[in-house]
Amino acid sequence: MPDVLRPETDFTVTVSEKSGKPMTYTLAVVDDGLLDLTNFKTPDPWNEFYAREALGIRTWDMYDNVLGASAGRYSSLFSTGGDETLKPADAKANRFKPVVKFIGPFHLGKGKQKTHTLRLPMYVGSVRTMVIAGQDGAYGKAEKSSFVRTPLMLLSTLPRVLGTQEEITVPVNVFAMEKEVKEVTVSIQADGGGIEVMGNKQQTISFAQPGDQLTLFRIRTSGKTGKAVIRLTAAGGGKQTKETIEIEVRNPNPAVTLRTAKWLESGESTTLPYTLHNASPAGSRLWLEVSRIPSVDFSRRFDFLFDYQHHCTEQLTSKALPLLFIDRLKETDGEEAETIKTNVQEGIRQIYSRQLPNGGFAYWPGNAVADEWVTSYAGMFLVLAQEKGYAVHPNVLEKWKRFQRAAAQNWRMPEQEDGWTRWQSALQQSYRLYTLALAGVPEPGAMNRMKEQPQLPLQARWRLAAAYALTGKTKAAEELVFNIETTIAPYASQNTVYGSSERDEAMILETLLLMHRNDAALQQARKVSRNLADEEGFNTQSTAFALMAMGRLAEQLSGALDFTWSRNGKQQPAVKSAKAMWSKSLDTTPTAGDITVKNQGKGTLSVDVVTRTQLLNDTLPEMAQNLRMDVKYTNMNGADLSVEDIRQGTDFMAVITVGNTSGTTAYSNLALTHIIPSGWEIYNERFIASEAASADATGQSDARGNRNSGQPDIRDNRPFTYQDIRDDRILTYFDLQRGELKRFTVRLQATYAGRFVLPAIQCEAMYDASVQARTRAGQTTVSRD
Fewest CB within a 10 Å sphere: which of 23, 152, 212, 513? Predict the structure, then answer.
């Protein structure tokens, strides 16, 4: 094959056996840069299959079971992905398209040779061509590296993502490799994503001799989001080269979801207004929901779960669990049903990866100890998914059941602990027994021992009653909950069971349904509906349990929907459905109007109009509720630095200090969300472990200024539970004791010239909306030298 290849030009590869023997082979052409990421060597089948073995016996050990109890899995310690796990990727920009060609297998006859014609996409660099062959126990390999270049080449530089309403300078480096190329015309074109070119779309460069020159274009984004395509073309000396770049345009500003609701008696009608203002068109949505059960605030709650960016095991489960019950709540078309199926399957796959050797589930990847509540929660989802017809690996469930049975059998009510600890322990055990009963392997001995416990907490009684109901022991269930409350008083969110009064009341609803107390269940559903409508009550656990319980309610209650509706005076098709609810996503134009609904049926209907708008300009003020957050930027020597106008190429530090100001409460499961401007890049220091270890060992301040001897209560950025570094943001998860401060430092670089949005930095307790802090959004300019 040639030593030098040209992109978008056919080339041939001829394969033959050195001695003319027949063989079967496969052929691959791969970008050398990709291969270098893992130091990939061309496979050598002969050495693999004929390698000497030290022992010809099989051995077994239980190291995984023993060491797995105290050591994490190192493969996940350095993971840099994990984001967008449950979101569809079809509409996303594929920024870095790998150069990979794989063909075969082919059979080559004795004394023959075979020629293949291939073509590479627009690419400049180096590729390795590899052939692996075998025949009748003989094996071989061959490889060759080839440069990929053209007489005229161009190389552009753009951020990984762009933001709305930003201006970016696009440098384009043009390489003229032959003397014939004297004058080159370079042009730029932008499609989609609301991108427009500012100034000249075409420039001319002159070359006196082979070399390279830099030319600059300027582009600007609008309020539109989505995938954009930027096309660059260079032509001169009879040569032409092109580059196509896909890039995502994001809106980093927060979304605001509003709901207008109304109850309609038989024969009544109502008109509900809506307005979408100061919003990004791509980030705006409008729904109409009508249900014959108390409203589940369906669109708003599912939207909340779908867009939730943190992906611990609890939150992965909460995203997927309600999807199992959508078809009980509303009619789904083929496309929606397929999307639901894909997302549930992806949720199952993700949860598999969080299981430990002992059968429990970790809260974060890399954690070595199972989280008891999350183990019960994830296992419950897998059991329900299997019940709904999804394929769940039996080994995963068997390991989980063994873990649950052992924990249930060994549980004892803490004797010396305070009432708060005893309450959490009792709820842990009752929920564990419920999940075992749900899986068809109840632990009657443990259930009976718990039933006899004196002063069993309210929530534990309801959950244990659900376990008895699942096993058909209705009398024991009735005894447990005879004449007790169905309303849960609000309690502290900082607990080991991820609990809230809203979540517990949804659990009680499910128990009532399992006990076939439908009248009481309907009354309880109204409480759950009010909780779902609460603007402040959003957390993943309570949302998932409430939607699951309402889905179970819809399964058991019969009835029909019968209503007519119109939008802005225009009559729409009448609706008649046997489902519990009806939901429709509406066009967002016009951005203001009204929707009229008339109840034609016999029962009562709940009508909701829901709007979701993503602000074009984040004008929200700073916030500090039970947390204090200070953000400053410094140069590499620790001196303060202004980022309003920063020089391109500057390395600097973002120093974020978060403090617990509640005075009485220790907070767990805090999430710090730091979104980076498009023109900056994150310097990922997780791979520079030696530098950090050296600084920690000496106890001295490093160049980033992480130590502060004057404030001994400030912790450095090591004690976080988990950290997820993505292309455009860093998500850090940690705990804060009473009065404690923690400092997190991030090394950044001002990489791309232009004017960019400086997104607000936010810290929040993931299970308590009253604990949060937020900075103001702003602007940053990166200036060229």
Answer: 212
What contacts 150, CB < 8 A, 6 or more positions away? 6, 7, 124, 177, 239, 241
Half-sphere exposure of 555 (CA within 13 A, CB side): 14
How far does Cα 88 stand from its chain's mean position?
11
pLDDT value of residue 699: 36
Contact assessment for residue 135 and residue 106, using Cβ atoms and an 8 Å cutoff:
no
Q: CA 290 → CA 269, 569, 575, 775, distances in Å?
A: 12, 18, 10, 38
Helix 474-481, helix 458-470: angle, nearest 10: 170
pTM for the whole structure: 0.79
DSSP secondary structure string for all residues of 675-716:
EPPTTEEE--GGG-HHHHHHHHHHT---TT----TT-TTEE-
User: Cα–Cα distance between 717 and 695 in angstroms, integer?
Assistant: 12
Rounded to whole angstroms, how far apart are CA atoms 86 and 413?
38
Distance of CA 117 to the CA centre of its chain: 41
Tell me the C-alpha distance between 87 and 164, whole Å.
21
Instruction: Give residue 162's pLDDT.
Output: 93
Q: Determine contact, residues 744/656, Cβ cutoff 8 Å.
A: yes
Rg (CA), the chain: 31
Closest CA to 190 of 124, 121, 122, 246: 246
- Bridge partner residues of 575 (DSSP): 563
The DSSP code sequence of 532-576 is HH-TT---HHHHHHHHHHHHHHHHH----EEEEEEETTEE---EE
**Inter-residue contact 69 to 368 (CB < 8 Å):** yes
Contact 317, 559 (CB under 8 A): no
Judge contact between 655 and 661, C-beta under 8 A.
no
Q: How many CA within 13 A on the CB side of residue 281? A: 10
DSSP state of 445: H
634: enclosing H helix or E strand: strand 627-634
Neighbours of 301 (CB within 10 A): 22
The whole-angstrom separation of Cα 399 and Cα 361 is: 10
CA atoms within 13 A on the CB side of 467: 30
- Beta bridge partners, 251, equal none
407-416 contacts: CB < 8 A, separation 24 or more?
Answer: 407/372, 407/432, 408/432, 408/433, 408/436, 408/443, 408/446, 409/443, 409/445, 409/446, 411/446, 411/450, 413/453
pLDDT of residue 537: 57
Phi, psi of 121 (to 5 degrees): -70, 180
Strand ordering across the sheet containing 285-291: 255-264, 605-614, 285-291, 581-586
What is the rounded CA–CA span in Å between residue 415 and residue 425? 11
Contact present, 705 and 632 (Cβ < 8 Å): no
User: Which stretches of the chain score pLDDT less than 70?
Assistant: 55-95, 278-282, 535-538, 685-718
Burial class (CB in 10 A: 0-12, 13-18, 19+), 535: exposed
- Other C-beta atoms lying within 10 Å of the C-beta of residue 343: 18
Strand partners, 138: 135
Q: Which residues of 745-764 are buried (b: 16+ CB within 10 A; e: fewer)?
A: bbbbbbbbbbbbbbbbbbbb
pLDDT score at 93: 67
Which 3 state secondary structure label does DSSP give 232? strand
Tell me, what DSSP letter sits at residue 97? -
Q: How far apart are CA 145 and CA 30, in angstroms?
A: 10
How far is Cα 546 from Cα 322, in angstroms, rounded to an integer?
A: 9
Residue 238 region, left (φ>0) first, then alpha (ψ -120 to 50), else beta?
left
Rounded CA-CA distance 159/620 in Å is 26
Residue 534 to residue 737: CA distance in whole angstroms: 29
- pLDDT (tens digit, 9 = 90+) per residue, 293-346? 888 777 778 878 887 888 899 999 999 999 999 888 888 888 888 989 999 999
pLDDT at 48: 87
